[in-house]
Amino acid sequence: MIKIIECPRDAMQGISAFIPTDVKAAYINQLLKVGFDTIDFGSFVSPKAIPQLKDTAQVLAQLDLENTNSKLLSIIANTRGATDACSFEEINYLGFPLSVSEQFQQRNTKKSIAQALSTIEEIQNLSVKNNKELVVYLSMAFGNPYGENHHPEIVAELTEKLHQLEIGIVALSDTIGVSNPTNIAPLFSTLIQEYPTIEFGAHFHTTTDKWEEKVESAYKNGCRRFDAALKGYGGCPMAKDDLVGNMPTEKLITYFTEDLGLNPLELENSLDLSTSVFK
User: Fold this and answer.
1) What's the mean per-residue pLDDT of the chain?
2) Which residues have CB under 8 Å from 177's CB, separation 6+?
3) Phi-psi category of residue 235: left, alpha or beta, with phi > 0 → left and psi -120 to 50 → alpha
4) Where on the phi/psi map is residue 27: left (φ > 0), alpha (ψ -120 to 50), or beta?
5) Confidence class for position 153, pLDDT limits 50, 70, 90
6) pLDDT tens digits for 41-89?
7) Is the CATH number 3.20.20.70 carried by domain 3-277?
8) Separation between Cα atoms, residue 26 and residue 171, nearest integer Å
9) What is the pLDDT of residue 143?
10) Of 25 and 178, which is predicted with more confidence?
11) Long-range contacts for 239-246 (Cβ within 8 Å, ≥24 apart)?
12) pLDDT given at position 104
């Protein structure tokens, strides 16, 4: 079964002009009607780090969760944020960014990789106690712009450490758009075979001409979980100055021949609404 995780949080976080809380909530409420597996809707991080998402709790209070099967995911970067997120019963998943790059880990969470792993252990314990599931994003999994040593073995070593912590979902993340079939295929095929208890996802950032080869490579090598954002809006403001957009949801959907359980009319309504949200 294909799982599509729609990521309005990722689409919004790099926009400097503040999107009003009511507008955010209305957009996410529209997305909840489509039938996506999960909505990555907000983030409990420092308002200084990502001011766009300082109103996540207020947005959550306005969401209509009565008539949707979609689950909610919130990004967190430390134990305090995880504690805040755990206080909301409506949130199903906590997402933590763990980087293959020491420099990016410091830039993103002000921690070393070793410190981040220690934080993940604390958050995993919190998640279990509060009936949440922790999703770890392995950012820079396919390469980084900092000139650091990068090798698939580093990704494998971190995956093993996450496995020891009983993390059930790991999203291999192409934070800056450098993934291609040559580096996508061996990572997914090897890790999925070696860690059958982990659900591996693909969080690709991409230019408009490269999206299909990325999806195809991941899918043919066993990936069934894909992050995306309507029209490819967004990118990681912590990665580098030029934001590479997200995987466009509408294009991702066209790749799959099976029924994804999505409502085509509500998807079209969401695409229309996105234009006014990201104007």
Assistant:
1) 92
2) 204, 205, 206, 207, 210, 244
3) left
4) alpha
5) confident
6) 999 999 998 999 999 999 999 999 999 999 999 999 999 999 999 999 9
7) yes
8) 27
9) 80
10) 25
11) 239/104, 239/145, 239/175, 239/176, 240/145, 240/176, 243/14, 244/176, 244/177, 244/205, 244/206, 244/207, 245/205, 245/206, 245/207, 245/208, 246/7, 246/10, 246/11, 246/204, 246/205, 246/206
12) 76
CB atoms under 10 Å from CB of 109, counted, come to 23
* Start-to-end CA span in the chain (Å): 34
Asked if residues 6 and 230 have their Cβ atoms less than 8 Å apart, the reply is: yes
- Phi/psi for 35 (5° steps) reads 110, 15
Are the beta carbons of 253 and 219 closer than 8 angstroms?
no
CA–CA separation, 126 vs 251, rounded Å?
36
- Per-residue confidence (pLDDT) for residue 110, from 0 to 100: 81
**Residue 243 token pair:** 């934001």
- State what percent of residues in the chain have pLDDT above 70: 94
H or E segment to which residue 251 belongs: helix 249-255
